[in-house]
């Protein structure tokens, strides 16, 4: 008698890694890359790439404070995808942060 195998469950989530990283930074602008990586279940290198993406797109900036970075979320920007046109980043973050 053959054992029936279940199809592999597809893994997906509603939020992108970029959204998760941005939420962590919005919660704590002084957060370390290591801590973002741990909370988002990503590598530090992946978080660094995402931060560069967000800065290049104008959603994030940072200043160096000693040996640490302090981030600033530019929440007045529109969301990138045309299907998401309308709300600003601040509105999305307010929902995700529970404000």
Average pLDDT across residues?
92
Q: How many individual helices?
A: 4
Strand sequence of the main sheet, in spatial order? Answer: 1-2
Uncertain segments: none
The assigned structural class equals: alpha+beta
Quick one: biggest sheet?
2 strands, antiparallel
Q: Could you name the CATH homologous superfamily?
A: Winged helix-like DNA-binding domain superfamily/Winged helix DNA-binding domain
Strand content: 5-15%
Number of domains: 1
Total number of strands: 2
Overall outline: globular
Q: What is the CATH level 1 assignment?
A: Mainly Alpha
Computed CA radius of gyration, to the nearest angstrom: 17 Å
N- and C-termini, Cα separation: 56 Å
Classify the fold: give the CATH topology.
Arc Repressor Mutant, subunit A
Task: Work out the helicity level.
Answer: 40-55%
Topology pattern, helix = H, strand = E:
HHHEEH
CATH architectural category:
Orthogonal Bundle
Protein name: Helix-turn-helix domain-containing protein
Pfam families: MarR_2
GO molecular function, one term: DNA-binding transcription factor activity
Domain HTH marR-type: 17-63
